[in-house]
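sanity check this record:

:::
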Amino acid sequence: MAANFFTAKAQSTKPAKNQTTEPALQPWVEKYRPKTIDDVSAQEHTVAVLRKTLTSTNLPHMLFYGPPGTGKTSTILALSRQLFGPDNFRNRVLELNASDERGISIVREKIKNFARQTPRAQAVASDGKTYPCPPYKIIILDEADSMTQDAQGALRRIMENYARITRFCLVCNYVTRIIEPLASRCSKFRFTPLDNTSAALRLSFIAREERIDINKPVIDALISTSNGDLRRAITYLQSASRLSSSTNPPTKIQTVDIQEIAGVVPDSVINNFARVLGIELDDGMDVDDRSNGSVGFEPIKKQVKFLMREGYSAAQIISQLHDLVVFHPTLDGRKKSSCALAFAEADKALCDGADEELWVLEVALCINKAVLS
């Protein structure tokens, strides 16, 4: 019975392996993952330093840190492929997600066993290219900031003992969660959020490759809703593409589609809400014009009820209102600080499970009082 089970399991995994190699079935974040470090967007300093390691093949232990979606894992994978080639990549590189395998037992067993193995001799590349293939292996620990303190302590000793034949690359979002003895043994590389120009160029390239007709406002919406996370922007673009192609005939991707997919409240809705609160916008509405009856408790209460019935997230509404108020060109510092206190109290209350409608109403009334005072 056991033999039949394992045979069936082995046979069932073969088609899945073939499916992962089919480009049409791949997520775009994997399909357009950088193949070389020169393809990495916007991280010029890191790319320049790592490019030199391809010529010297003298790679130190490395610590990549920065916000999600900035290319940390893609960079080390691309570098590893350029160092070892497709044939040696599997036996020279071990990639682990430390958020799933973060205990000390994983460090003592899986990581230590791989680190102590002597690398195999260089083989002739099947694609006809020549690769440096230096005499060491690379262990990539993604989300290393999720590892326990004990696991990080055990990892420090392994890095010392097997440094001759194994290099480590720790990838994390928060460098402060890596213990100092471990961080001091690594060369640190900081990945910054992608600038708008680099993100726009990459998204435009993917759109051309996938034959998608998008305009600049749509690209701007992808960038603004992803907050410098290119991976998220690519995912939104793929979702919008499938949504537009599902209709008959296919429709063109609009800015509102991106905002809907991202869970962002449309700009028109937030702007209408801001006007009801008495915030002056580019349309020339006067903040102190109360004679039109659009500013007051009842209109604000009515607008809050509308937002809640539409199913918008209270946290998202408050976040977008925060950005609108903080970056408003004409509100003075005193009014902005009063609003900021309301935003902070609401954020804490919502995290504690408070009623969303009541706190959106509370924030709205505080903003109304601040801007009209």
Q: What stands out?
A: The longest strand covers residues 166-172. The beta strands are 62-65, 93-97, 137-142, 166-172, 187-190. The chain has three domains: 28-190, 196-262, 267-282+293-372.
